[in-house]
Specification:
Blueprint lengths: L1 H5 E17 L9 E19 L2 E19 L5 E21 L2 E17 L2 E2 L7 E13 L2 E16 L3 E19 L2
Antiparallel strand pairs: 1-2, 1-9, 2-3, 3-4, 4-5, 5-6, 5-7, 7-8, 8-9
């Protein structure tokens, strides 16, 4: 019984709203204008170690995120195209739990699986792994968990034909989880 209170293992899934800021753009990317956010998804596993209210929560999550941009053509017209990222995110969150509420923050390692911009495959020119951070809060009711987080990642893109740019991907993440072990 005491072991179940110290260690938790569970599944989680949810949706996110994300957008991408361009920084240090040159070549073709300097003409892009940020247009809006997209809805993404995530699903994965979490563990939680809880001692005297303090918690350590490592996770492994498959997620999608990105943003929308206005893209000009040679005729002066613009179209809106989506930029998307598919990642395996591994956050390591440290926080505090008081009764049923939790607050936490920590670094996140993000491993790129796929990246697209319109019809262009961008994966080969992107960094394969990046670091960022997450900060959030959650509640636990018996075996159910609910969380809301803010995440910020930086991805670098470099290609000889299209130039280089830093993508600052930010998202608000909503998730629900179920504790398989522990309460």
């Amino acid at each position: 019984m005491a072991h179940a209170q110290l260690f938790t293992l569970g599944l989680k899934a949810g949706i996110s709203s994300s957008n991408v800021d361009l920084k240090n753009a040159n070549a073709n990317f300097s003409q892009l204008k940020e247009e809006g956010s997209i809805t993404g998804f995530h699903a994965g596993v979490f563990t939680r170690f809880n001692v005297a209210g303090f918690l350590l929560q490592p996770e492994a999550v498959l997620s999608s995120s990105g943003g929308k941009f206005e893209v000009p053509d040679d005729m002066g017209n613009t179209t809106v195209q989506e930029m998307g990222f598919t990642n395996v995110d591994v956050p390591l969150l440290v926080g505090y739990k008081l009764l049923f509420a939790r607050a936490y923050a920590g670094p996140v390692a993000s491993f790129l699986i796929d990246s697209e911009f319109g019809t262009m495959d961008m994966k080969k020119a992107m960094d394969s792994a990046d670091w960022g951070y997450q900060i959030g809060a959650g509640v636990d009711i018996s075996r159910l968990t609910a969380d809301v987080r803010y995440e910020r990642l930086k991805r670098s893109y470099t290609d000889a034909s299209t130039g280089s740019v830093d993508f600052r991907n930010q998202q608000v993440i909503f998730s629900l989880g179920y504790k398989l072990i522990g309460k």
